[in-house]
Amino acid sequence: MASNGSSHSTDIELFLTTEDIKCIKYSRVSEDDVREVVRTIQDWLKQQPHLPECADTRMLWGIWLLRKMSLERTKQTVDMYYTVRNLIPEFFENRDPVILQKQQAFEHLQFIPMPNMLDDFTQVIIDLYAGTEDHHYDLNQFMKTGIIICELMMRNSRALGFHIVLDLKNYSLGVIKKLTPAFLKKLQVVITKAYPVRIKSIHFVNAPSYVDKLVTLGKMVLNPKLSKRIIVHTSGLDSLHDHISPKYLPLEYGGELGPVQDIWDLWTKDLISKRDWFLEQENFSSDEEKRPGKPLDQSELFGMEGSFKKLSVD
C-alpha cells in the first residue's frame, strides 16, 4: 500500500517475508516507509554516473535500517559498497566459492552466523580459525570468506546488530602478527563504510592470557562505546553465557544449536549454490572516472590518519 505522498512507490515490489515484517515493525517504521526509501535510493542511483543501478530492494532497505533510517548514511554506504570493490581488489576479486572451497578456505576460516536471532533482532556470529598451521591463515581468503557471507546476510538476514564471538583457540603469535595496521585499516573501511555492521558486543573466547593485555592496549585507540563492549573470556564459557544465552550458541560453546560444523556446512552449501551470482557480481563496481568531483583513491580511503574510534556501534 503506497503512502499518499508517493504516487509511484507502488511500483516497488518488496517481497517481504514474515521475519521482514516483524523486523520492520520492531524498527517502528511502516512498509510504506520502506517502499518509499527504496524508491528514493533507486532514483538517486540513476543519477549517479559512477554507480550501477541496484534492483535488490531487500539489500537497500536492510542497509537503511542498519543505518538507523538515515537516508544520507544509506547513500554513503551504497556508494562505498560498490567503490571498495575497485580499491581493495585482493578482497573482492576471484570470490568464486567453488575455488575457495577447493583451496580449503572454508575448512580453515569460518565466519558463521547463527540461525536464530535474539529478541532484539541481533544475531550471534562465530568467527573461528580452524587451521592448525600459521600458513593456513590467509588474510585475503579470510576477508573473501567473511565478505561473501556478509553478502548473503544483507539479502537474507534481518539482523539489526551483531554479537561477534571470536574463538582464539588456534591463534598463535604467528597468526596475530599477520594482522598488520594496513590490513586492519582496510578491514575497518569494509565493515564500517561498505557493509553496515553494527557491533553490539565482541567476545574473545579460548583466549591465551596475553590476549587480555593486548586487548587492553587496543582499547586505547578504539571508540569508547565499542571498548566497553569487548569482553575477554579467559576462564571457560560460563562468563560468555552471562551475556549470550546458550539457546543462541552452538554445542561447542555450551549452546543448544547443535555442532558448529553442521551450521557452517549449511552456509557453505548456500554459498556454492549461489556461485553464478557471485561471479556475476564481479561485473558491478564503481567507475571512478565518472564520479562527480574528485575520484576516490586508496591513499585517501586507507590513509592511516583517523583511527578505529569510528568503528560502528549504536
Automatic annotation (TrEMBL):
<dbReference type="InterPro" id="IPR036865">
    <property type="entry name" value="CRAL-TRIO_dom_sf"/>
</dbReference>
<dbReference type="InterPro" id="IPR001251">
    <property type="entry name" value="CRAL-TRIO_dom"/>
</dbReference>
<dbReference type="InterPro" id="IPR036273">
    <property type="entry name" value="CRAL/TRIO_N_dom_sf"/>
</dbReference>
<dbReference type="GO" id="GO:0016020">
    <property type="term" value="C:membrane"/>
</dbReference>
<dbReference type="GO" id="GO:1902936">
    <property type="term" value="F:phosphatidylinositol bisphosphate binding"/>
</dbReference>
<protein>
    <recommendedName>
        <fullName>CRAL-TRIO domain-containing protein</fullName>
    </recommendedName>
</protein>
<feature type="domain" description="CRAL-TRIO">
    <location>
        <begin position="164"/>
        <end position="261"/>
    </location>
</feature>
<dbReference type="Pfam" id="PF00650">
    <property type="entry name" value="CRAL_TRIO"/>
</dbReference>
